[in-house]
Specification:
By secondary structure, the chain is of the alpha+beta class. The protein has a domain of 145 residues: Butyryl-CoA Dehydrogenase, subunit A, domain 3, CATH 1.20.140. The protein is 51% helix and 9% strand. It contains four helices and five strands. Strands 4-3-2-1-5 form a five-stranded antiparallel β-sheet. The longest helix is centred in the middle third of the chain and has 37 residues. The N and C termini lie far apart (76 Å). 29% of the residues are buried.
Length: 224
């Protein structure tokens, strides 16, 4: 059918969004060191992520260290960790449900209408995943920008937007598009007319031919 490419495009974009969400969660480039001024000699670069911070000094390889205590982390970092982990799990579930709802996948006892609902559910989960990704990414970016323009904060403590934040925005956009395509396929499938053609998933009864009912004639009364 004409709507089958929507399934494939939605699931491919959903897979790319899943990979991007996982990369955003694991990369340490959420907050990078800011270099304010033109006469500054850069001796080291500092990266801060959800799970570790990394330091690259001049002519020294990159050194990363995981955060030691979970309870000592700021609440913003703890919330960002939780939301990104939920987003990864939710996108994985959405991808599995979407694969089960594809036309080419044969499941026992599943009709085309049920598969369309599975694809719609997958699309909704992808949209929720995009919202969960946007919350910590935008929250962290807001804090970085606010502190950067705050004159009370020392120049050495200011940070800039890292590559992981831009990857998070891109991943959220991709899963939003994937969810929209899958939900659109579900809506288009539900609006199809009920025709008796194979492959549409509708069980239409054939028209019943009227039976030949004998016409009873009126009784005649004979008078003698």
């Amino acid at each position: 059918m004409a709507f089958y490419p929507l399934q494939i495009a939605g699931l491919v974009l959903g897979f790319l969004g899943l990979v991007g969400t996982m990369a955003t969660t694991l990369l340490p480039q959420w907050r990078v060191s800011a270099f304010v001024g033109s006469n500054i000699i850069v001796f080291e670069r500092l990266w801060e992520g959800l799970w570790m911070n990394c330091i690259r000094q001049a002519k020294v390889r990159l050194q990363c260290k995981f955060y030691g205590s979970l309870l000592a982390l700021p609440p913003v970092l703890e919330a960002a960790r939780a939301l990104m982990c939920v987003a990864v799990a939710l996108s994985l579930i959405a991808l599995i449900i979407g694969i089960c709802g594809m036309k080419q996948i044969q499941c026992t006892g599943s009709s085309d209408r049920a598969k369309a609902y599975l694809l719609g559910t997958s699309g909704v989960l992808f949209i929720v995943t995009g919202i969960l990704v946007l919350i910590p990414v935008c929250w962290t970016a807001n804090i970085i920008i606010r502190d950067f323009y705050n004159p009370a904060i020392h120049v050495g403590q200011k940070r800039e937007l890292g590559a992981a934040l831009f990857l998070g925005w891109a991943s959220a956009g991709v899963v939003f598009i994937a969810g929209g395509l899958l939900c659109g396929y579900c809506c288009c499938n539900r609006k199809k007319p009920r025709l008796g053609y194979p492959g549409l998933g509708y069980s239409v009864r054939p028209p019943v031919k009227p039976r030949n009912v004998p016409v009873l004639s009126k009784p005649t009364t004979s008078y003698v």
